[in-house]
Specification:
Blueprint lengths: L1 H5 L11 H25 L4 H12 L1 H4 L16 E2 L2 E2 H28 L4 H4 L8 H18 L4 H26 L6 H4 L4 H20 L8 H25 L15 H28 L2 H28 L6
Antiparallel strand pairs: 1-2
Helix pairs in contact: 2-3, 2-10, 3-5, 3-11, 3-13, 5-13, 7-12, 8-12, 12-13
């Protein structure tokens, strides 16, 4: 929830608010545990396997928040196809949630909780570098400074409180359990545990589908398109799992644990939020139109998300899985 909601500015304080505990954390924890457990249960977490699972994750923006049918981003209705919002589909389903709600949290979680490196082993080499950490921090800072309306002081407090809470939980877990050397796949649900997780997940869909923005729930046509997308992503997941083969006999390792990558990301994120806010003010004064700067940043964000989402979709549809 930190990587997807705090860095995007959608919910800056997920760990200290009622909706954070009742809505944000259940949405993210149940989805990532179920989908990651499914992937690790039946095969190897190669990137082309994780991507369609991340797309399925992103589809929660249909029945839970209704953003894929009636977005709250714009004052006027945007581009839609068959009742499904096109820009939001690319940004949320094919880009943001696969990356910041699934891939990055899985890689970070495995690094913090386990000596194994199955998730990172499936990533391109660049994504395992310090430059990638800096880039992720800048992306988070860019999004939060653009979307979140809070004052700079509260933005800094969001990064400090939310990031500090997350690091505190990880530090406590490592103090209690790291010496036992659990593999990451051993920590994930499997078998009957996945069935148990499915119950609260389905209840969450029923509750939010029925009571959260019920007026935004569309007719049969737009719902059928989302269900068709879900079936398509499920097919890609099953096919790519089969091509990836079973789990490795001996998972790789990233070496001794270090807090440095986490601190680099959080530091870059916190500083870049403030930096982008200052840059906005300077460009607004120079151009004479702060609104024009905001529109330009929004357009740049959408173009980047469409490009990134297209790249991810291509990787999932035409996979190249190393043995």
């Amino acid at each position: 929830s930190f990587l997807a909601e705090v860095t995007s500015g959608s919910w800056p304080f997920p760990f200290t608010t009622a909706w954070g505990w009742l809505g944000v954390m259940p949405i993210y924890s149940l989805h990532i545990l179920f989908l990651a457990g499914l992937v690790f249960q039946f095969g190897r977490p190669a990137l082309p396997v994780l991507l369609p699972a991340g797309f399925l994750f992103g589809l929660y923006e249909s029945y839970l928040t209704k953003q894929l049918w009636l977005p709250t981003w714009w004052k006027e209705p945007g581009l839609s196809l068959g009742g499904v919002a096109v820009v939001e589909f690319f940004v949320l389903v094919l880009w943001w949630h696969p990356l910041m709600a699934f891939l990055v949290p899985l890689a970070a979680g495995e690094r913090a909780l386990s000596p194994s490196s199955e998730v990172l082993d499936g990533f391109p080499r660049f994504f395992r570098s310090r430059r990638a950490l800096l880039g992720l921090g800048l992306v988070g800072g860019y999004y939060q400074s653009l979307i979140c309306p809070l004052a700079p002081g509260k933005l800094a407090l969001s990064a400090l409180v939310s990031g500090g809470s997350l690091l505190g939980v990880l530090a406590l877990w490592r103090k209690l359990y790291a010496s036992q050397g659990f593999l990451f796949r051993d920590l994930l649900p499997r078998g009957r545990e996945l069935g148990v997780l499915l119950v609260p997940l389905l209840l969450l869909y029923f509750w939010m589908g029925r009571f959260v923005r019920p007026e935004a729930l569309p007719g049969a046509g737009p719902q059928a398109l989302i269900l068709a997308a879900a079936l398509g992503f499920a097919f890609l997941l099953q096919r790519n799992l089969r091509q990836a083969g079973g789990p490795p006999q001996k998972p790789g390792s990233e070496g001794p644990f270090s807090w440095r990558p986490f601190l680099i990301f959080l530091g870059t994120f916190g500083l870049s939020v403030q930096g982008f806010r200052v840059l906005d003010r300077v460009l607004g004064l120079v151009s004479g139109s702060p609104e024009r700067v905001t529109v330009f940043r929004l357009v740049l964000t959408i173009v980047a998300a469409v490009g990134g989402g297209g790249w991810m979709l291509r990787k999932a549809v035409w996979p190249r899985i190393n043995p």
